Amino acid sequence: MLLSHAFGLFTHPDDEWASIRKEHHTPRRLYVAYVFILAAIGPICAYISTAHFGWTIGNDRLIKLTEISALQMSVLTYLAMLVGVFALGYAVNWMAKTYGAREEHVPSYGIALASYSCTPLFLAGFALLYPVPWFNAIVFLIAACYGAWLMYDGLPIVMGIDKDRAVFYGGALLTVALVILVSTRVGSVILWNFGVGPVFVSG
After folding, report:
1. What's the distance, CA 77 to chain centroid?
2. Count of CA atoms in the C-beta half-sphere (13 A) of 87
3. How sure is the predictor about 195, in pLDDT bands with cuts at 50, 70 and 90?
4. Residue 159: which domain range?
5. Bigger pLDDT: 187 or 167?
6. Which sign, positive or negative, has the C-alpha torsion 32, 38, 42, 47?
7. In Å, what is the CA distance from 196 to each residue of 40, 70, 133?
8. Residue-wise pLDDT tens digits, 135-170
9. Residues 6 or more apart whose Cβ sits within 8 Å of residue 85
10. Domain count, the chain
11. Quick one: pLDDT at residue 1?
12. Is residue 103 predicted with pLDDT exceeding 80?
């Protein structure tokens, strides 16, 4: 089962990457059986916490989002995550030949690397059930660092390249990931200007 990889990447990542390389699942199957499920963790937890638990900043009163606003934000976040994983996977395949990857014509490798490397970020979504900004920031920072390391660790195994090349390959992919992140932030601002923004209420 594809979801078993989520735990293996934390306990024995090298063996798990080798197993992933042998599977050759289609991008569609990876999305349906893995990304669609794990990417929903964060948005669902964010909806529950922002609409029902609320949060405080300093000694201010409790702040929540309206249920409709929280639902809109969660759905948009979910869609952005799906697009981001696909864009990162596409970048892996697009750069593959440049860095000497073998069998770069197999599109599942790029999506697999992107999907499984994002696993820590997917699972970090559980932290949103405790809506404290500094706590969430620390958890997601740790998850992002481990996800970046997973990408670097998996590149030579899945794409069949030397570890020296994986450093530059991983650096290029990290740049792409940052561009995707900035794009989602810009997209959020644009959507907020069209009225699809957060609506706050006092707890």
Report:
1. 11
2. 16
3. confident
4. 4-202
5. 167
6. positive
7. 20, 11, 22
8. 999 999 999 999 999 999 999 999 888 888 889 999
9. 35, 39, 111, 114, 115, 118
10. 1
11. 57
12. no
CB 201, CB 65: distance < 8 Å: yes
Q: How far is residue 139's CA from residue 156's CA, in Å, rounded to a whole number?
A: 27
Distance CA 47, CA 182 (A): 22
3-state SS of the chain is CCCHHHHHHHHCHHHHHHHHHHHCCCHHHHHHHHHHHHCCHHHHHHHHHHHHHCECCCCCCCEEECHHHHHHHHHHHHHHHHHHHHHHHHHHHHHHCCCCCCCCCCHHHHHHHHHHHCHHHHHHHHHHHCCCHHHHHHHHHHHHHHHHHHHHHHHHHHCCCCHHHHHHHHHHHHHHHHHHHHHHHHHHHHHHHCCCCCCEEEC
Nearest to 124 by CA among 143, 107, 97: 143
Q: What is the rounded distance in angstroms from the CA atom of residue 70 to the CA atom of residue 50?
A: 6
Residue 58, pLDDT above cutoff 90: no
